């Protein structure tokens, strides 16, 4: 008998390819394998037509023009192209970039790299919920500011920045606005024009498309954004990103976008209701649980909880039937607590006991019941073994204990 696979609640890390997406992709791996740049014969023509259709599908999901889409290998590349591309192209105009401490590493590390090369970067502090305000951004703008880069939704805690307000501010001050919308796209409505976004990064594998494909949306008018090339070669994508197009991947990205656009109005509330039931099921039956992230301005699928007197890694080991992420997973092998939780002021000991549950299209009601039961059992078991927890239950504040010194 095959072992049951664990329940997958790690959709912010990646999602399975939707069966309908796979079906749309298959012909472009086999019969319609042409190079989209070989337009002198039918093979190339068919590939090119499929790519054009995918442009329309993405454009419609994010309120952009089809022509403004530049295909990439994913959001990491899109973020690099946006941030470095602007910094290098607008160097004459200024060298100041505004971002936030809780951005994805693809943006943070790119900004740090530019800071080492003479750019001035302001890393804004978010509030306790992980949000920055438009006023904070306004206060940080100088005559030298050329770029504001702030994510639409945070991958660890799900918090949403006030993107439309920041977009309007950027417009009024003549500063280019990039948003890493990798977690937002497909989960909440995003509209490039209505939100005043100039550059937008997204990635297929975060919304039921394949891995290794994404795009950067580059505004073409009001203002026309120019970027310094990061990939030299055949001059594909209007010269913005050379390299033979990943046609099956792009077709998958387009199909995934269309499904999200059609199904978001019913899917998002369904997932949010499950997410809230999970939250209540845990919080209602366990003490010392803290929500990380904004209570309302948050992705509908994301629940990041800190369990005091418990260690996140041990908690995961105690729940082999549940695939979730510890807060430190994004900073990979290191034992450092999550820099995102640190930036919102979660103490290190609590941060170490944090778990991100991220729900998705395949999450069911029954799965949530199992997960609640597993979490309660695991946390209770671990706390029973914790001397610290015992003290707290006996009314002793561990902070007041005088430990013997050696
Ligand atoms: C996953 C993710 C990325 C990286 O995307 P890839 O396509 O895997 O390179 C960037 N930003 C955010 C917010 C993400 O969640």
From TrEMBL:
UniProt-listed Pfam families: Aminotran_5
- Which cofactor does this sequence's record say it needs? pyridoxal 5'-phosphate
Give any single GO term for biological process.
Answer: [2Fe-2S] cluster assembly
Listed GO MF terms: cysteine desulfurase activity; iron-sulfur cluster binding; metal ion binding; pyridoxal phosphate binding
User: Metal-binding among the record's keywords?
Assistant: yes
Which keywords fit this entry according to its UniProt record?
Iron, Iron-sulfur, Metal-binding, Pyridoxal phosphate, Transferase
Family annotation (SUPFAM superfamilies):
PLP-dependent transferases (SSF53383)
Belongs to which family?
Belongs to the class-V pyridoxal-phosphate-dependent aminotransferase family. NifS/IscS subfamily.
Query: What is the protein's given name?
Result: cysteine desulfurase
- The species this protein was found in: marine sediment metagenome
């Amino acid at each position: 008998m095959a072992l049951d696979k664990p329940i997958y609640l790690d959709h912010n890390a990646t999602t399975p390819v939707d069966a309908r997406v796979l079906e749309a992709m298959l012909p472009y791996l086999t019969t319609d394998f042409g190079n989209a740049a070989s337009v002198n014969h039918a093979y190339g023509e068919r590939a090119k037509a499929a790519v054009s259709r995918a442009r329309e599908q993405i454009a419609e999901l994010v309120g952009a023009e089809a022509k403004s889409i530049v295909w990439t290998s994913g959001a990491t590349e899109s973020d690099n192209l946006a941030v470095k591309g602007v910094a290098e192209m607008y160097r004459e105009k200024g060298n100041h970039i505004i971002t936030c401490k809780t951005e994805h590493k693809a943006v943070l590390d790119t900004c740090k790299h530019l800071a080492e090369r003479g750019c001035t970067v302001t890393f804004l502090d978010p509030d306790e919920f992980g949000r920055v305000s438009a006023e904070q951004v306004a206060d940080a703008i100088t005559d030298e500011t050329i770029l504001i880069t702030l994510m639409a939704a945070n991958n660890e805690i799900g918090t949403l920045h006030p993107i439309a307000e920041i977009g309007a501010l950027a417009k009024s001050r003549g500063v280019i606005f990039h948003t890493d919308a990798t977690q937002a796209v497909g989960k909440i409505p995003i509209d490039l024009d209505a939100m005043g976004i100039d550059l937008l990064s997204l990635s297929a594998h975060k919304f039921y498309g394949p891995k290794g494909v994404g795009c950067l949306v580059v505004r073409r008018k009001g203002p026309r954004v120019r970027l310094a090339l990061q990939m030299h070669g055949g001059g594909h994508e209007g010269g913005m990103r050379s390299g033979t197009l990943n046609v099956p991947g792009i077709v998958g990205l387009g199909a995934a976008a269309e499904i999200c656009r059609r199904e978001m109005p019913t899917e998002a509330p369904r997932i949010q209701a499950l997410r809230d039931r999970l939250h209540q099921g845990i919080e209602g039956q366990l003490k010392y649980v803290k929500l990380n992230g904004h209570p309302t301005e948050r992705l509908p699928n994301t629940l990041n909880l800190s369990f005091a007197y418990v260690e996140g890694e041990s908690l995961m080991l105690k729940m082999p039937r549940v695939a979730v992420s510890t807060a430190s997973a994004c900073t990979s092998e290191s034992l450092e607590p999550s820099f995102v939780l640190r930036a919102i002021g979660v103490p290190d000991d609590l941060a170490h006991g944090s778990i991100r549950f991220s729900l998705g299209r395949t999450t069911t009601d029954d799965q949530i019941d199992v997960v609640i039961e597993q979490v309660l059992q695991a946390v209770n078991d671990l706390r029973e073994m914790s001397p610290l927890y015992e003290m707290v239950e006996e009314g002793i504040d561990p902070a007041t204990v005088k430990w013997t010194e050696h």
